[in-house]
Write a structure and sequence with these properties.
Chain B: Belongs to the TonB-dependent receptor family. Chain A is mostly beta strands and 199 residues long. Helix content of chain A is 12%, strand content 37%. Chain A contains three helices and eleven strands. Classes of the chains: A mainly beta (199), B mainly beta (757).
Amino acid sequence: MQNFRKLPVYLVAAFTLGIVSCESDDPTPENEGEVITNVVLNFQELDASNNPVGTPVSFSAIDPEGIEVGATPTIQTINLKKGKNYRMTIAVTNSIEGEDISAEILEEADEHQFFFLGTAFTGNIMTIAYNDPSGKLIGLQNRLAVSSSPGTNNAQMRVVLRHDLDKNFPGATNPNFQNFEQAGGETDLDITFPVVINN
Amino acid sequence: MLLSAQMSFGQKCDLILRGKILHQENDDPIEAAYVWILETRTGAVSDQNGNFVIRGLCPGTYTITVQFLGHKEIRQSVNLTGSSTAQTFRMEEESLDLTGVEVHGHREAVQTTTAVTSLYGEAMLQARGESLGESLKRVAGVTTFSTGNTISKPVIHGLHSNRIMILNNGIRLEGQQWGAEHAPEIDPFLADEITVIKGAETVRFGPEAMGGVILVNPPALPTSKKHLTEIHLLGASNGYMGNLSASHLGGSDKIKGLGYRVQGSVKRAGNVKSPNYYQANTGMSEYNFSSSLGYSSDRLGAEAYYSFFNTELGILRDSHTGNLSDLINIIENGEPFTKADFTYEINNPKQVVSHHLAKIKSHYHLNPEWKLNLQYGFQLNNRQEFDRRRGELNSRPSLDLELITNTLDLFVDHTIKTNWSGSIGLNVIQQANSNIPGTGVTPLIPNYEMFNGGIFAMEKYLKGPLELEGGVRYDYRQVSAARYVGNELQTADLDYQNFSAFVGGLYQLSPYFAFTSNLGTAWRPPNVNELFSQGLHHGAAAVEIGDPDLVSENSLKWVNGLEYESEKALVEFTVYANQIKNYIYLNPTGETFVSLRGTFNVYEYLQADAFFYGFDLSGSYTFSDRLNGYLKGSIIRAKNTEADNYFPFIPSDRMDWGVSYAFGKSSNPESDRITFSNVLVAQQKREPDFDLAPAPPAYALFNIGYQKKFQLAKNQFNVGFQINNIFNTEYREYMNRFRYFTADMGRNILLKLNYQF
């Protein structure tokens, strides 16, 4: 049993190693860089020679917490006038971080594109065409024409922002491209606005 | 003595002496030891399980000698009365001072009465180039839970992730194993043997070893002058995979007992091809290194070990969906929308993972019967996951974790000369997880510190063909977690404690037949992700919500095994039942969550009682010197016994059979061998109530392999040629999470070269 004298050596070694414990870092709040909280559609009425008429109107979709669990976004109803032409611009922001995401979309024009779907475009109620100043098909600025004799006053406009898509995919030049998902990529925004057409 | 034997004359001489001969060092059976009875001048030689039988003995007292090269002779008297007797002999090695005697390697054999299967030698050679998960599919009852073709986690009897344990050279691997898409951080090339234990082994290995344990073991270090270099070079047609591994093993000629090993591997692969299209962004690269240095004397053993694992994995582009309608669209489409060509380039989404593991281990023989062991392990795991993001964020990981783990084991083994052996010890795990700031995403799991202390004792009784064992353990675990959600600090302090115990037995019915039975409890505390998840999982277009009030899972697993091994046939049959209380699972709530990004399914972590049962069968038969056949199969049933429904991702019924023909020269037919095999996988008919897509149909795959061995003087050169999925069959495996998005890998042609010198 003499050899049990070695036991304390092992216990001391064990103790020494045991106290070499490590701690986790203190957590820090993370800036949510990817989140979108506000999407604003601005409508500027245009006359026959494309000059602005009157003051622009805005309709927004807001989700103050971004993509956290619990809150449901607030989506306003779009009110437009029969037979008028509009310049529609889209402003996307992250209000939590005070970030202008439209600028980022513009910077990465090759990877982003808006599509406009829903009954507003299928029921002969309105038509839309990309009109981005850069000439690239993004959808941050568009020309929108409301029919002078829409079949109904109520419709829906679904605004989809795709990221990382193949812009050369056949059909992807059409802002109303139904099968946008076939061009690949993923959805950053998918908001359905109710639309009311007034006289 | 002679007299006493003669005195019994006239009595019935039909008594039997059975016995078992083991190494004192590690309880490994000794084959071909010589047992001799002086009085009767009869003897026997032990078989490969260390067993021997001497028949036709009269009652009386006999002197028995046991001899085996390099070991001290045992001389003992045995009293045979009216009944037959069984006795265990443990042989001690001769002193090192004797010249010409090799020190016995210090690698521990797995001592358990549970079903154990090992991959080594030829099977290991065939598995080279595959991930750990894929390699282990060769073991009946082991399947994989995978995420595409690059990430696969082993599943033992239907359980995976934190319900099984992986040991890298004796240290429990501590990575971020909670994630379904987090593959084990280990290079299979560091091992020459991988062992799967299919029982509940919490007592021996600590919490979470509920479904089973996987031991990835490098070869034992040489203890005398010896050098062996091994090179593997592999190539595969699918993904144009290239894989190189080299290892060198050496023993010092100056210092007796000193040995070392260094090993490294690199792997590179590009986009994987399904039968009809490339899977975009499925390339991977990996580089790994391991080394060890060891010293052995007759009293002392010491080892230092370090392993480094590093991988970069591409994740199928289209599996990263924006919202539920994206997900539904791709499932309806039946294949990814993104068309890709072959490339080695890896883009986002991707994972970059590195894992360092260092350990020191020492044992000291206090005397021939008692051994003291100390092992300390340090692990550092870094995991970065990158998503497709806007602008500058695209180059920043959206998940960035650093996990540090210290493990300490201190235990005393004893092997009493005859019937008893066992161990008593303590085990400490200390862990710290930190989110590296700057991801721009609220962390999925909090920062936390964890402490786990356990004490255990187990004992085994051995008498001839019978082995009985039992053990108990107590664990205490403390977790303190903290994180910010928005600007609000959330903290939690949780503790868990648990007893676990097991009993088991083995009976060697005959030299061919062995029966084992093991009943063990196991437990697993809830994981941080199960407690605290609150966020979006892009691959599943799901919001997952954790529950801080979850309690520990407790299981009771009963494993029975029957093994038959004769010269021609080998059959292993394992039946098990596993009752798990408070099984934690992710349940679809049926609700959806609407955001500006679209709609998502909401999942929550729930607990329910579960019952798993099933069997594994594996057998082979040698028809002739040249013809050989094998069959493996497994069936698992898993049910939520509270809700009376099925859990998702439970492997479906499957079997694998094949025949091989050796056609080398008659002196060495094994030098050339061709193997034809067929894998049959049934459709999973026991589906959960909710799934994004129905279980894929059954499939059959055909593979062919050719193995040639060249003996070049003392060196060995092995050439392997394999075609997997010969007919380029399009199929989807139920256990692959990417079955929603893409078909599995198509035909793959592999060339495997191995040179040992």
